[in-house]
Amino acid sequence: MRKKLLMVIPNLGLGGAQRAFHDHSVELSKYYDVTEAVFDLDLENLYPSGNRLESLQVTGGGGPMQKVSNFFKRVSQLKQLKQRLGTDICISHLEGADYVNLLSKGREKVILLIQGSKSHDRNISGLTGWLRKGVLMPLLYKRADRIVCVSRDIIPEMVEDYGVDRRKLSAINNSFEVESVWEKAQEPLPAAMQTVYASAPILVTSGRLAIQKNQKPLLSIFAELRKTQPAKLVFIGDGELRTELVEHARGLGLRVYEAWADVPLTPDFDVYFVGLQHNPFQYIRPATAFVFPSAWEGFPLALGEAMTCGVPVVSTDCPTGPREMLAPGSATPTHPIRAAEWADYGILMPMLTNAATLAADETMWVSTLHTLLADAAKRTQLGEAARLRSNDFTHANTFRRWQKLIDEVLAE
Asked: Are 405 and 32 in contact (CB under 8 A)?
């Protein structure tokens, strides 16, 4: 009989973690009897896997006491679900699910999947952030049978900052639907957008409009670049910083197109906010370059998918992921880089988060983008290299490693 694998995530809906959860569910169901569990079904399942889905039926929200009560209800409900299903191994995605998974642990094995840097996550702040980093992670993460990090550079964090035994840690990168992404990337743009792309070199970025993605400095860089270089900037995605980014762009004197506004799509704009797209890859493949200004990551899906599209990529050397993807043979620097690093599979750039060096770092970005846009041969070479590198991140490669790890844990 196939072993019973339970996968837990706090919620469904839109996000990189939810997409990875879907991929894991689909691929691991080839080897195990997979059941998915969520805290509640308040969000639509945008990435259905076809596997059995269970809800713990415990909502979020409320005051501090209500949140504590809900937390322990989730632990109790998950413990009961594990027992009812006869779970052999339980894998949790995202921190909230990790705590519930660990505290409900019975005879089953437990694996945690760490999707991003904890130590550099600026959303983990204040009293709650101190509780998570100073108490919960150091206390609870040691109870896991294994912890899988999506990037090699998260492992030192787990050891040095949270006291996890290095022998329990593994790095297995996120995977991408390489063949499917490439196929979708061949779809032509809508006619009006084709006219935009034909009018000037196109810089494109993709991701949630959120603090982690750090798109605000990118607008300042673009405004400076346009003083000496015709170009347009396309944002794919939406998020809580939409209004702030649009206002900042207009404050820089840039003409802004918003897909949600009732205005015609023409080449007369400088910046294009096109919102969420069913097929973002048709916007990425014909672009001149993909730009990625994140403040921190895990192993970013958006960057990997842009590489799959065969586009030259320019990314901050942020923790964690981009260096491992673009310069896998290089060691992680002990100090943030301050100059462009033309790596084998893309260009690593200074981060845009240090106020003391921001002006100089933005200038470095402007200069590097100007050089890249002027060198068609280099763009072709980097785009082809990026696409070749993306083949290392196929589902087949990644989930062979997952199957081996799971079987090892089950055998212990």
From this structure: no
